Amino acid sequence: MISYKPFYETLFRRDLTEYQLIHTHGVSAHTLYRMKKGEAITTKTIDVLCDILNCDVQDIIIHI
C-alpha cells in the first residue's frame, strides 16, 4: 500500500498549503483529492511535486 503521509509532512515543513499548490503551482485539485483518498497518482505528478517542494520521492510517498 502507498501512503502519502510524507507528502503532507513535507508540505507542512515547507510552509505551503494545498491552496498554494493549486493556485500558484498549477497542481490539480483532483490530484490532491486522490492523494487524500490514498489513490494512485502518476510518476510524472510525483516528479512535479518533488520539483515544487525541492525534495526526494521518499518525501512524497512511502510503501507500507
Automatic annotation (TrEMBL):
Domain of life: Bacteria
Boundaries of every HTH cro/C1-type domain copy: 13-64
Pfam families attached to this UniProt entry: HTH_26 (PF13443)
InterPro entries assigned to the protein according to its UniProt record, in alphabetical order: Cro/C1-type_HTH, Lambda_DNA-bd_dom_sf
Protein name as catalogued: Helix-turn-helix transcriptional regulator
Source organism: Blautia hominis
